[in-house]
## 1
Amino acid sequence: MNLLNQVLENNFYFPLIVFLTGLIFLYLLLFYGLKSIFRQFESDVALVTLIASSYPILLIYLVLGLKFNLHHWESVKITELVLKFLDVSLIVITTYWLVQIFAKIIIYYLKKYTKQSEVMWDDVLLPILEAVIPVIIYILGGAFALKSAGVDLTGIWVALGGATFVIGFAVKDILSNFFSGIVLLIDTPFRFGDVLSLEDGTIGTLKKIGVRVTQLYISKNHSDIYIPNSVLQGQKIINLSRPTPYFQSCLKIKVPSKSNFDQLKHIAEEIVMAHPNTLGDIDQKLNFIDKYYLEPELLEQKESGQKQLLTEKRVDQKLEEIDLSLDTLVVTIQFAEKVGLTKDEIENIQQEYHGVLELIGLDVISLEENLQEDSLIELVRQWYRNLIRDPNLVDEDTYIISQEWERKINLLKTRIQRLYQKIASPKSDETRLDDYVKEINQWLKDKFKQPRLKWQDPQIRVTAINHDKHSSLYLEFMINFFIKNFKLEDGKRISRINSQIYQEIVEQLKSNYLDNTSSN
């Protein structure tokens, strides 16, 4: 007991014992206690944060403990240099800790989030932030460390400001391209993969918006072009991929003026509808597909096209079923919101939403995929697997199609899960639940799979009456139709489909109509 009292009365040993005891306890807590607890969490964010923070926290405790004890040890002479060293060490450790937190946690989870986002600037700005932010943290940390060491930074800041002005003037074009790139990414009129038409007539696929230049792929000569961002921003750009992913194509055919235009129109419409890669009513396309394109080299294309159309029809039917269920859910929510949501009404809304989850293909409890063959997710996968069996596709198209649809499926799952959380606990958003459901329904139509509209069906019209050199009269009629997935096949899909349709129309007119007209 006397020994304990002596230790407590000794201003040298007692703080040291407390300090060492705390150091041992903190070490055991960081490297053993918390680590075993955090390993049981489903998310690894807590464990990764602990691993990145353990040594910095331990070192910060050590430095702070030394500063505290040095002030209480009267027998130890403390120099100003020692205190400055401890302050600088504290700043250096904190700077390193912040960089580790930013690089291993913030950036990692931002990248994970951007894979599920629908904006493309995340994919470009994040690498910039990943490179720039640590440098800024180190510069600020170094400045504070020098200031704590007693270095006068006034002259350095003045010199740095002057150098910045000179450098900025020298690289003004680079800065102009940089800020133009940022503007293009944030206020973007296009997305990666969109097909753009520039002012000079160049048509290319957007591959990347960089810090200085934008990269486009030109399918015509199979090359990449790099356009300075400031130049691209000042151009009038036509986005051929918006507002729909379909390309409107036009063919012109001349026939003798004595031809029966109604019959010609009927034949041309059937031929266009019979092509598996054009837009139109699926039932009509399936009716006509066996009637035309009978050349042996087109049989594999026809077989693949039939499978595509059949699975796409099932996808469209499932989307219509989901659309009806969501509309019904909106009505239920709006009726319940008028007087406030009761417990029974919330349960009723949740039950209706469970039906939507099952249609989409998500388990009601875990919200993970339930792998039902007739669910939307599985039907979409069956459809795009048939799409990639098209014999006309190039190797890269397989990756593009599967990546695009898996990304859409992940986005759909994320949105559906977020809405489920709001419906499961609606108190804070009970007056907005119907709006959230409408947003999901509209997103399915705008971003997931756009429904076919009546005006997108093939249109055939007479455009002119011309004379040839023998003074014979000819009707010129124009065929307008939409091509699906037109950016595939290394940009050659449009020309291939136009050529096949034109050739089939000419052959059919020659064999079934024009020859008979000439004989009469």
## 2
Amino acid sequence: MVKVKKWDRKKKKAARANYRAEIKSQKYGMVTNVLYVMKDIYRFDKVMFFGCFIFAFSFYFSDLLAVYTDKYVVELAAAGFGSLRLVMICLLLFVGNHVIGYIGNAVGNYQDYIGFAKCSNHIMEKIMKKNMTTDYENNEKSENNDSLNKAREGMFIAGYNTPLNVRGTIRHTINFFTYSAILSVLDIRLVPIIAVPAALSYLIERHKMQWVWNMADNWQVYDRQLEYINSLSNDFSNAKDIRIFGMQTWFEKIFARSFKQRLEWFRQQDAWEFRHNVLRSFIGFIGDFAAYAYVIYLVVNGSIGAGDFVLYFNSIMRLSNAVKDWCNNISGYQWISNNVNYVRAYLEMEDKTNRGEGASVPSGKCEVEFRNVSYTYFGAESPTIKNLSFTLHKGEKLAFVGLNGVGKTTIVKLMCGLYDPTDGEIFLNGVNAKEYNREEYFRLFSTVFQDVSELPVSIAENITGQSDSEIDRERMFDCMKKADIYDKIMSLPEKESTPLCRGVYENSTDLSGGEKQKTALAKALYKDAPVLLLDEPTAALDPIAEQKMYMNYMEFSKEKSCVFISHRLASTRFCDRILLIEDGGIAEYGSHVQLMESGGKYAELFNIQSSYYNDDKKEVGEVE
């Protein structure tokens, strides 16, 4: 059972202090954020921008005409339909209301079905672009991931609620002054009688929501748990384990446990909101009832006619609603502003790398030099790479070997510009890598990382990164053959046009681990960059496929500077130099023959691996 936390004075004071501190810490204010979103909407969708004003005024005039239509219809009925003037007025009001209402509905439909989606998607595209182009290191920091999650949550609110609130504020503001003026003609005291209780109802609603906002931290942990459990249970990659190990019962138990704890907070929120809703309805009813009673009294006494009674009666309802809705809009702006700040904070996240004009990138062979390079991961206490110095010469084939976790992959990420050194410098053809524009620098490297990713598009698009009309198919087929994946792809029903990811397309295929690595290699070869980085490119291949890849390696690595990482030391013998990485630095270096002759750590590791295979063969021979 969750302990109920009372909304006492101490907690209220602390909540207000936290709220003020949060608002004060935000970079942009409420007005600035609303203008930021509306200016952005004006730039990419002027129809949506002006639609907010057209919608507001259309429904304002439509409501106003409806109020007067009711008034004159009643007067016409009372006059026995003998007044041509009243007939014409009613017809004009009816037609005008219909035309203006049609305009408002047309604009509203555009905004509801197209405009709001375009606004949210426009912000989502900006967040996606920032996520894909920001410094790679930014994506690995937990605080930036939290910022990204907040930006994604704020995206819809910024794109949907901002124009919704703006058009509502315009409409309700005009309504307030219009119906206040109409009622003031009858009795100016009616305005505060209606407006004050409506404003009090808003304050009660705000007090209700303050509890919800300040208590949200207590149940967000359960919401995250439920979302995580749900996503895991629906992830197809977990389907085999769930069935084989009977994990469905476990999923059901932890889901039920988290939901039970979340349900306790639902019950508390329901009880809290029920009390406030009753009080809010009662206070709002007092003001409206007093105004209605006064108007009824006047019509009974003959002070106003039936038509005026209908006019004032409708005006009371619309003024009350205008005050309540206006207050809700004004309150909503702070909520919108908070979320816009989340979006802007992520979009304005600082990048350390050069994104402007840089040094001219080389067009031919490349040489990469590490000078006393060290790198410490975010949050780590000690560096993974320590004072590392070496040179990848033009056209050289360089291998990195060593145990897991010594920093081999980190070196590759430093070399291709995904990471910036914590200390030291990296030079490309004698120029500090920081001097190059980072996007242009990336074009110099073709990589195959351990974790191969594939997109839910065709195999051809995965390999080339281009649309179907832009693909050089002859070149693509050549790369597929070099990567030894051509025959497999040509055996598929749609060949290279076969889409990947069965969870997205019905006619798609899922490649095996080894086939994914071959496809990734074909992708790297198609890019044809002067530096080729292969990080465990044969880890998922069988021995025969691995041997074939090694035989092809000498051909597709010609004229390129290459780095090769592998745990299988026998696979590095074709490299010009081998660097044994240990404890973040170079423990040994040389050719395979030199390292074996020196009898050091490399020779020890090589002999251990080779003895395993020799023992295995011996055992097979004994069985025979």
